[in-house]
Design goal:
alpha/beta, seven-stranded mixed beta sheet, binds S-adenosylmethionine
Length: 465
């Protein structure tokens, strides 16, 4: 068991929140247990059914159960509860769906507001937004007369947020679709307007600009928005070269929005885009050695540590214990390094989940390259897709950023979900920057904690359920 020095004020606040969260989760679990006892015996999937509906609308349960399930949903932890916030754009109010873990983390993204303010939509336009986040721009486009709104994002939580935002604002012909760029759109989509809230990674942005150019009809308009410290000026220069010119439409507190018109069939300067990953099936491949064995890691731009094996991941790979036959969940799998190694060590089918569909596609490739059979790689918000299942081992290198913001709600939920999906006796292996305050949260959930590695920059924590 680790010892701890006196926590800072921030840590105290964090632990107070963690405590409150834990109390709520325990209450929820007690209700789940009561409900499981209420449902007739013989239904092996009862627990899965109950848990599947925790925090969601109870749409497929028997009417008599509806009240109880709704009660659980109401009491469910704050992490999975959706909220509706109102955002004012150009004298009109819009509803925006948000929850912990979504890009704007409950705040309103100034770049989305700028985009909304400057977006020019004609009656009947087809409007596409790539990297749509909470989907606010889709609601604005609809209110301004768009005939069809298509929103795409590689983050499945953003897709769900955008879907809810469309519904909340009564968008009659709108869809929110999972995927990076044009890959997410119905084939043959031709747009009058494409709006892009720029992503943080340069090659991902290049892909979105390239796709925007090709999805637009000649005469159509491309809008980009983002912060200066997120690279909006570089994005503007690339768009200028690709489209043959662009115009700054507005700027506010470090954020800018710029528009360019597609005037030609071919890009004005093809060399503006130098990414070799424009084809959705072009993966970066590298061989990394873990536990003395070579693995081909496949990944796409924007996936965590997509062009090298992350140092913390490598440490966890060398530290985690996976026995033959263990069922393993790689929580937040990225390109699938840990899950693929774990599947190789256990010889049993491994499960990997990630919120980013490009990570899911990458991990699927990585597992296939290692010849893993039966690997299951799913898009999921934390362990949401597998909450009804039980695993012998959970391995994780949890994220602590959403976009550019540090956000400890997500790693806290990683720990809570790890506890939920571990079978009794199951083991958690977690790697983190040594400054991150996870020890007490893990100890409170699991009642035990072992520090397996305590390095200069990273630590590996383990607990048994
Ligand atoms: C620090 S990275 C680790 C990736 C991989 N396990 C590795 O070690 O290379 C964290 C991963 O968590 C994923 N992630 C972020 N938020 C998530 C969420 N709400 N649910 C599931 N995965 C999430 C990110 O997409 C990212 O791939």
């Amino acid at each position: 068991m680790s010892t701890h020095s006196k926590p800072s004020k921030n840590e105290e606040e964090f632990f107070a929140r963690a405590d409150a969260e834990l109390r709520k989760q325990r209450r929820k679990r007690a209700i789940v247990e009561q409900l499981v006892a209420l449902v007739p015996a013989g239904s092996a999937s009862t627990r899965a059914l109950v848990e599947e509906h925790v925090g969601r609308e109870a749409s497929i349960v028997r009417p008599s159960d509806r009240l109880q399930f709704t009660m659980i949903a109401d009491q469910h932890d704050a992490y999975r509860a959706w909220k509706r916030v109102t955002v004012r754009i150009a004298e009109r109010e819009y509803a925006m769906a948000t929850k912990p873990g979504t890009v704007a983390c409950g705040r309103v993204d100034p770049a989305a507001v700028l985009l909304g303010e400057r977006l020019d939509v004609a009656n009947g336009d087809v409007v596409v937004q790539l990297h749509c986040g909470n989907g606010l721009v889709g609601a604005v486009a609809w209110a301004r007369g768009a005939a069809r709104v298509l929103l795409a994002d590689r983050n499945v939580l953003s897709v769900e947020a955008a879907r809810r935002t469309l519904v909340e604002n009564g968008v009659g012909n709108g869809e929110a679709l999972p995927g990076q760029g044009a890959l997410a759109l119905p084939s043959g989509t031709q747009a009058d307007v494409v709006a892009i809230r720029i992503p943080p990674e340069r090659q991902s942005l290049q892909q979105l600009l390239w796709d925007a150019f090709h999805v637009l009809r000649v005469g159509g308009r491309c809008y980009i928005a983002g912060a200066t410290n997120e690279g909006i000026r570089t994005a503007e220069r690339t768009m200028d070269r690709l489209f043959g010119g662009g115009r700054l439409l507005g700027q506010d507190s470090g954020h800018r929005v710029t528009m360019a018109t597609r005037r030609t069939v071919e890009p004005a300067d093809r060399a503006a885009i130098d990414s070799p990953y424009l084809d959705a099936d072009a993966f970066h491949e590298q061989v990394a050695t873990m536990r003395g064995r070579p693995f081909t890691l496949c990944s796409r731009p924007g996936v965590f540590s997509w062009d090298h094996l992350d140092e913390a991941t490598a440490i966890l790979a060398e530290t985690m214990l996976v026995h033959p036959g263990d069922s393993v969940l790689d929580l937040g799998c990225g390109a699938g390094a840990l899950g693929t190694l774990a599947g190789t060590l256990s010889g049993a089918p491994v499960t990997m989940v990630d919120v980013d569909v490009e990570a899911v596609r990458s991990a699927t490739r990585t597992a296939a390259a290692a010849g893993l059979s039966g690997a299951r790689i799913l898009a999921s918000d934390v362990a949401g897709a597998v909450l009804g299942e039980r695993f012998d081992v959970v391995v994780t290198n949890p994220p602590f950023h959403v976009g550019k913001m540090t956000d400890l709600d997500v790693p806290m939920q990683f720990i809570a979900d790890a506890w939920t999906v571990l079978a009794p006796g199951g083991r958690l292996y977690l790697v983190a920057n040594r400054t991150l305050p996870y020890e007490r949260v893990i100890a409170r959930w699991f009642g035990n904690l072992t520090t397996l590695h305590d390095g200069r920059r990273f630590k590996v924590l383990s607990a048994v359920r």
